[in-house]
């Protein structure tokens, strides 16, 4: 009986599954999309504010100066993924349509997520300061590097203008609340530190909101109806293979470089993710005149799979003993 219980999904995984089911049946439409977008932004802002209030200045400085970890994460995001997409072409391309494979290559060129990468790192009790620095920097670098990578990796892809609006949005939504939390730390830092359950609730709540809003958008775009079933099944396999290899190689690199368990967790969750929020606007510019829906479909599916898989991994890492060797 105890073995069967260990095989069952944990509570947070069940929450994720229920959220996907709800979004599939009752996706947000029209004004609801705007409302849930604002709620998600507020939840993410609160998450960063609480992290800013909880983290010491010494921990943040250590995160900023951990150049070896950041370099490894950036290499995974902007080097390992594109190489995987190209190297696996003989295996992946026959499983999907040409447009979907183009979308897979585009997916591999994108920056990492910010919100969910940091939230999962926090849930798993990894190096949150390093995750904040790395994930935020990845989004900023992606504005410059992704168009270059797409132009190099994807045939016949044009260049895209740099969107400074995206930089401003990152600063406003993520860095500003974090800085405000740092300023408020002297007054509320001890109070926040004693309420780990509250921070966990915000972490998990923000992820569930991201899942619902992202999946609602995918459903509204005709996720289950615009692609033949065999190609859709093949696409799921492609996304799962790429994610599994990315997670495995990231975990292997963490051990090879002798990172601590906290740093290996940060590498795992920051180095294996791709941003839906950055990807869709970029696709509209880079692939103007193409079937953008088919090109972003791999990203939408990969985004859902990575959230589900990383949710399970983060929950398991979070249950480890407090003291790690």
CATH hierarchy: architecture: Up-down Bundle
Report the uncertain regions. Answer: 1-7, 156-164
Quantity of strands, as a count: 0
CATH fold node name: Na+/H+ antiporter like fold
Helix tally?
15
Assign the structural class, choosing from mainly alpha, mainly beta, alpha/beta, alpha+beta, or little secondary structure: mainly alpha
* Terminus-to-terminus distance: 31 Å
Radius of gyration: 19 Å
Instruction: Kindly provide the name of the CATH class.
Output: Mainly Alpha
Portion in beta strands: under 5%
Q: In which range does the helix fraction lie?
A: over 70%
Q: Your description of this structure?
A:
There is one protein chain. The protein has 325 residues and is mainly α. The chain has a single domain (29-316), classed as Na+/H+ antiporter like fold, CATH 1.20.1530. Helix content is 79%, strand content 0%. It is built from 15 helices and no strands. The chain has helices spanning 2-7, 11-25, 31-54, 57-64, 67-87, 89-92, 98-108, 115-123, 128-153, 164-193, 196-220, 229-256, 261-271, 276-286, 292-318. It is globular and about 55 Å long. Residues 1-7 and 156-164 have low confidence and may be disordered. One of its GO terms (cellular component) is plasma membrane. InterPro entries: Na+/solute_symporter_sf, Put_Na-Bile_cotransptr.
């Amino acid at each position: 009986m105890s073995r069967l219980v260990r095989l069952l999904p944990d509570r947070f995984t069940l929450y994720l599954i229920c959220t996907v089911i709800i979004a599939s049946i009752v996706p947000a439409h029209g004004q609801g999309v705007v409302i849930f977008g604002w709620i998600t932004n507020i939840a993410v802002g609160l998450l960063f504010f609480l992290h800013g209030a909880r983290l010491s200045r010494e921990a943040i400085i250590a995160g900023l100066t951990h150049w070896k970890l950041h370099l490894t994460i950036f290499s995974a995001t902007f080097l390992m993924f594109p190489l995987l997409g190209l190297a696996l072409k003989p295996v992946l391309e026959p499983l999907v349509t040409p447009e979907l494979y183009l979308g897979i290559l585009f997916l591999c060129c994108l920056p990492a997520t910010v919100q969910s990468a940091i939230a999962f790192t926090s849930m798993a009790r990894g190096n949150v300061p390093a995750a904040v620095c790395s994930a935020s920097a990845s989004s900023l670098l992606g504005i410059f590097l992704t168009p270059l990578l797409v132009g190099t990796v994807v045939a016949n892809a044009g260049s895209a203008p740099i969107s400074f609006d995206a930089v401003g949005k990152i600063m406003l939504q993520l860095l500003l609340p974090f800085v405000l939390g740092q300023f408020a730390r002297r007054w509320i830092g001890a109070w926040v530190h004693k309420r780990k359950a509250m921070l966990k609730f915000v972490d998990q709540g923000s992820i569930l909101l991201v899942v619902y809003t992202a999946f609602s958008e995918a459903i509204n775009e005709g996720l289950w109806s615009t692609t033949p079933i065999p190609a859709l099944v093949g696409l799921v396999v492609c996304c799962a293979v790429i994610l599994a290899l990315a997670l495995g190689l990231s975990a292997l690199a963490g051990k090879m470089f002798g990172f601590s368990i906290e740093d290996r967790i940060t590498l795992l969750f920051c180095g294996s993710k791709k941003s839906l929020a950055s990807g869709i606007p970029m696709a509209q510019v880079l692939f103007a005149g193409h079937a953008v829906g088919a090109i972003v479909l791999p990203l939408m599916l990969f985004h859902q799979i990575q959230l589900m898989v990383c949710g399970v991994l983060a929950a398991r890492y979070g249950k480890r003993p407090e003291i790690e060797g």
